[in-house]
Amino acid sequence: MTQTSDASSMADAAMIAPQISILKTMWSREKGTWAISGMRALELHPKANCDPDYFSIESRIELLSQGQFNNLEQVMASVGPTEFLLRQSIVPVVAWRQGDDAIRCIGTGSLISCSGLIVTAGHVLMDPIEAGYGVAYKNNEPRIHDELNFGVFIPFVDPLGRQGLGYFPIREYWVWAHWKKSPLLFEPDRLEYRTDVAVCKIDELPNGLAHQPLNMSLNPFSIGEAAYSIGYAEMSDIPIEYKDGKLRIAKHAAKLFVSIGEVTNLFPQNHIEKASSVPGPCFTFEAKIPGKMSGAPVFGGEGAIIRGVISKSWSGERDASGVMLGPAMRLPLNQPGETGRTLLSLMHDKTEGIGQVFGAGL
């Protein structure tokens, strides 16, 4: 009887054991410089009756830092349910035009700097143009329509302890693609991507507070390495209404889903060899990746760093592709009058608060 009970207890323990953990850093501004003030591995437990390789998260109260805090806002950002802490770094990318009755979730993005830089998939940012609802033309060239609202949602807790959802418009973005004209009248022009990675910028938080970025890696995956992705796979459109000329957004509980897989193929020279239909250096991994997880981070190093972003998947199959992040970190982010500005240069000069983790296998 005792042996049966012990075996049952061990089985129960195995069922509730965390599937994966994600290294989550806590950032703040100290004496005018971005700095890590806390760090913890967040264990991701699946909710009951979920597939162990694809699940929504069982939220538990977590504390990222036990150090001293400079203000109440830092305290609020460092403690809370697991999903709340992850959603400060992994965000839904949304779009809608003035007068629409709903906000579309078009993909997932990851904050990668304290200043508000976000990485996602190029085709996510270009969805309003490619789908036609956010396109305008100037000199016969397509561009983002002036009436398109384009941004991300980030949760917050106010000084009274109330949770809210803040909207941050995308102010600028970088997509490495060009329009390819079709010689056929019945075939539309299309975007041809150099890579399916995109970078965009939102406003900094007020009062010198830091956005909470994830850590990136220049290194590629290895075949057989575990790959984890977290994104807004099943997020529905958000109803909106206009009252007295003002936009009101209905309360909406965006949920994160975790997908676990294994890397099966690497295409580091894909920008030259074109061995995969995914643009740029890429990889494949066995994982369930539903729609709206495009642009989601793909973690390696046992959850310590981001090595790539989701590019495409095949519905109902455990077969997905991601774009390697390392090569994209060397692509230009130049502003007028600038040269040599890249994610890599911004990481090294430390002005944006971009995290980099060092260690064996990272």
Number of E strands: 24
Radius of gyration: 21 Å
Helix content range: 10-25%
Largest sheet: 9 strands, antiparallel
Q: End-to-end span in angstroms?
A: 47 Å
Features:
24 strands; single chain; 8 helices; nine-stranded antiparallel β-sheet; mainly beta; six-stranded antiparallel barrel; 362 residues; 14% helix
What is the topology?
Blueprint lengths: L1 H15 L3 E11 L2 E12 L9 E3 L4 E3 L8 H7 E3 H6 L2 E8 L4 E10 L5 E5 H4 L1 H4 L4 E4 L2 E4 L3 E10 L5 E7 L2 E9 L9 E12 L13 E2 L9 E6 L6 E6 L2 E4 L7 E11 L2 H4 L8 E5 L10 E4 L4 E9 L6 E5 H4 L14 H7 L5 E2 L6
What does this structure look like?
It is built from 8 helices and 24 strands. The chain has 362 residues and is mostly beta strands. The chain has a domain at 18-216 and 228-259 and 348-356. The strands form 6 sheets. Strands 6, 7, 8, 11, 12, 13, 14, 17 and 18 form a 9-stranded antiparallel beta sheet that branches. Strands 16-19-20-23-22-21 form a 6-stranded antiparallel barrel. A two-stranded antiparallel ribbon has the order 1-2. The model is unreliable at 1-18 (pLDDT under 50).
